[in-house]
Amino acid sequence: MKLSQLAAFVAIADTGSFTKAADSLGVTQSAVSHAIRSMESELRIGIMRRDRGGVDLTEAGHRIVEHARSVLRHTDQIRLLVDDLSARRGGRLVIGTSQTFSVHLLPRLMARFLASHQNFDVKVREGKDEEIAEMLRARTVDVGFVTLPKAGIRTIPLFQDELYAVLPVRHPLAARPRLSAPELAEEPLVVPADGLEPELRNLFRATQTRMDIAYRIGDLQAVLAMVAEGIGVAVLPSLVLPDTLPNICTVPLTPATRRSLAIAVRNTSEESSAVTAFVSVARAVARDAGIHGAHPRHR
Fold first, then answer.
1. What is the CATH classification number for the domain harbouring 81?
2. How many CB atoms lie within 10 A of CB 296?
3. Block means of pLDDT (10 residues each) for the chain, length 299 residues?
4. Whether residues 73 and 217 fall in one domain
5. What global pTM score does this model have?
6. What is the pLDDT of residue 285?
7. Residues 44 and 120 placed together within one structural domain of the fold
């Protein structure tokens, strides 16, 4: 019997749904269905009944489910034990992050973490917001920085980050105290390709305004450089904006638009001491930085 079968069985028992179980595990519904069919075939007994009202465990299913939970719990404990033993020898922590976090927050966080975990090998994998969530579901990273909400992973909120219009300093709209999505709709937008686009689409959709994306750029510094040269305008979170922006002006949006940022961990009952320490450091760094979504205007 495979651990994936037991995980699917327990997830269905907990959620009462094949669809919700698949979401919590980060797999397809067909994969969950296949796992249960294979498990029932191997056991030669039905463990659940499916109908339009949902899913119910059979008598056998009710008697088996706690044993399945115990197996998964002990498996997690084995992984944690190995993680802790590795940590004492100088283990490894894999972090998933987007450019939003990499620019300013991540270096400060890693420096503080490594000060107390000198022998640790910290690896960083960069991706878009949803890609980081998938890395966590697939267990290819230990922790990750994501925007909220996120299904199927455990998240610890860190702070809220305000979005700003970013324009050339001589742009006609640069003198405005605030800007709305409709006012930016006629401008060519330079959009970072790190996962911010869905939030921008929601921003424009809320005002029934079409977003005109002129350029998608992978590097945030290139986005700022293009704005400075007057090629377009951008909407960026305050966290990525440097203290000095030559030839650029930032203008708050109206209504004020914020996104919730969090650190996420694998969806297990327990976590390694290294992950616990990293989460604690992340919360402390966010708190000490006083990040609250405000950012000064630049001229």
1. 1.10.10.10
2. 10
3. 88 88 83 90 90 84 90 79 60 85 85 82 88 87 91 87 94 94 92 84 88 88 93 92 86 92 78 81 80 44
4. no
5. 0.66
6. 85
7. no
CA distances from residue 136 to 97, 133, 233 in whole angstroms, order as listed: 11, 5, 33
DSSP-derived 3-state class of residue 296 = coil
Joined together, the tokens standing for residue 18 give 């094949």
Q: Which residue has the tokens 């700003």?
A: 164
Note down the domain range covering 63.
Answer: 3-86
- The residue behind tokens 């998933």 is 96
- Which residue reads 């294979």 in tokens? 38
Write the CA distances from 230 to 175, 180, 214, 236, integer angstroms: 15, 20, 13, 16
Q: Distance between CA atoms of 264 and 143, rounded to whole angstroms? A: 6
Q: How many CA atoms lie within 13 A of 298 on its CB side?
A: 21
Which structure tokens are listed for 26?
């980060």
Work out the number of other CB atoms within 10 angstroms of the CB of residue 94: 16
User: Hey, what are 244's tokens?
Assistant: 């000095």
* Closest to 27 measured CA to CA, from 40, 6, 8, 51: 8
Peptide bond into 242 cis (omega under 30): no
Burial 189-227 (b: 16+ CB within 10 A, else e): bbbbebbbbeebeebbeeeebebeeebebeebeebbbbb
Residue 75, judged by CB atoms within 10 A of its CB (0-12, 13-18, 19+), counts as middle
Helix axes 273-289, 105-116, angle to 10 degrees: 130
